[in-house]
Amino acid sequence: MKLSYRGISYEETPVTLDITEGGIGGTYRGHSWRVHKARLIRRHPAPLELTYRGATYKRS
Length: 60
Description:
Layout: E1 2-5, E2 8-11, E3 19-28, E4 31-38, E5 49-52, E6 55-58
Antiparallel strand pairs: 1-2, 3-4, 5-6
């Protein structure tokens, strides 16, 4: 997916999660709702080279 923030364009890939449907979490206005949980939580590693106001630095 192509995105842009403050005039800088970048490419982002959406994260897909496997979701399991749990039991009934409660009732709201006469309708029951279910709890959904992610099977595996994935975390993206933070980039080692960062840029702040045009200055590039490396995270340690």
